Amino acid sequence: MSQRSEHFPVGASVTVEDLERQPYSTLARLREAEPVSWVPALGAWFITRRDLAVQAMRDAESFTVDDPRFSTAAVIGESMLSLDGEEHARHRRAFAGHFRPALVRDEYESIIADRARELVSAIAGDGIAELRTSIAAPLAVESITTFLGLSDVEPSEVLDWYRHLADAIVELTVGNEIPTASRRALDELYQRVSATLADGSSTFLTNLQDEQILHSDEVTPATAVVMFGAIETSEGMTANVLWHLLSHPEVLAAVRSDRSLVAAAIEESLRLEPAAAVIDRYTTADVEIGGVTIPERDLVTISLLGANRDPAIFASPDQFDIERQNLLQHVTFVQGPHGCIGLHLARLETAMAVEAVLDQLPDIKLDSEASTAPAGLIFRKPAAVVATWGSP
Ligand code: HEM
Q1: Which end of the chain is less crowded, N or C, counting CB atoms within 10 A of the terminal residue's CB?
Q2: By the 8 A CB rule, do 199 and 193 touch?
Q3: How far is 249 from 40, CA to CA, in rounded Å?
Q4: First vs last Cα of the chain: how many Å apart?
Q5: Using a 6 Å cutoff on CB, does residue 147 contact ligand 1?
Q6: Å from CA of 338 to ligand 1 middle
Q7: Strand bridging mode 44-47 / 299-303
């Protein structure tokens, strides 16, 4: 056992598999004994207590995203995700106005609601479907491409770009080159964004360029970050909410009879299973946090899943309880300068999916044999949410 691990015996015993499959008891042990722990399996310091997680995510001077080891920047180029300080603020300023809650609602609610209803109508006659791939995933891809104004792009193309980007990040992380196929796919994406900019068909992209907050060569990578930030996460968020509701029939019945409860059900699901379960930072100096000194330039992983189940904040933290008074204290969308910019759009998408399911599939039930609970180390979602219903 290394010297570092001797000081953090719980962290030393953690495996990636624990964190992927059954993380709750592992996170509870860490939070109790070593809320800032060295976890060799992750090669990172790991923060699991909510107050310390919030402290780190709000302190971008000590905990930065600006580090060459972040492979996203190497693949996509510099963007909000990989900048801090003034440059980060400039990138965010370019987008912030476009994601305002009133604007998102006024411009996109009816489009997304219609699309959610169409997706549910397409399966309504079948009596059985897997809801992640038939509703959550297509709604996530189509909502963000509509939002960005890339309307002539096929969802399958977007997913292909996304897969190639993910491959490139994995390859770089393990020390390999970016695969040729990934380079080609990203070139294609960039050409499509440039062509859309040139023909002026996307109001969003045209405004973004006209505002001149971003330089012209920054618009395309920034667009890619927004697109890729939305896909996996929104799919997971909607799938997790459907899974939570269907696996708690009494809550489903309550939400069905009082639609004002949809919002609380979404927040409680976001708390219990954040679709993005961890965020990474690098220390800019030796940093003292939670009684531990983390050396300069070490990797720090903040567990949003751990913070969201902290019993100091949430009573009976593992229970799905939509009547909690402090539902909104989850940190799934992160606090501080890098807080999720797309949260209102994401909430709208999931709400529209839930409303469509409740409206169009009145006696829907989970097929629990065929369904699986949310899982994953970085991104958490169920592999399958299989549901059955009678004829509408
Ligand atoms: C419409 C959908 C979405 C869009 C367009 C979007 C976009 C973004 C962008 C551009 C950022 C970077 C902000 C910055 O660094 O300043 C971000 C951050 C983040 N988003 Fe989202 N997002 C979406 C949905 C979601 C969902 C559904 C989740 C989780 C349930 C999520 C979780 C996060 C997290 C955890 C961060 C912080 C990353 C970090 O600090 O390292 N996002 N999002």
Answers
A1: N
A2: no
A3: 40
A4: 61
A5: no
A6: 8
A7: parallel
**How far apart (Å, rounded) are the C-alpha atoms in residues 298 and 120?**
46
> Residue whose CA is closest, atom 11 of ligand 1?
340
Listing DSSP states for 114-175 in one string gives HHHHHHHHHHHTTSEEEHIIIIIHHHHHHHHHHHHT-TTS-HHHHHHHHHHHHHHHHHHHTT
How many angstroms separate the alpha carbon of residue 340 from the centre of ligand 1? 4
Question: In CATH, what number is assigned to the domain containing residue 211?
Answer: 1.10.630.10
Q: Tell me: the pLDDT tens digits for 168-208?
A: 888 887 778 899 999 999 899 888 888 888 888 898 888 88
Q: What is the pLDDT of residue 7?
A: 93
What's the rounded Cα separation, in Å, for the pair 235 and 133? Answer: 9
Question: Total domain count for the chain?
Answer: 1
**Whether the CB of 223 sits within 6 Å of ligand 1:** no
pLDDT tens by residue, 309-337: 999 999 999 999 999 999 999 999 999 99
Provide the token pair at 33.
């004994």
pTM of the model: 0.96
Range(s) of the domain holding residue 212:
3-388
- pLDDT at residue 370 above 90? yes
> How many A from CA of 82 to the centre of ligand 1?
13
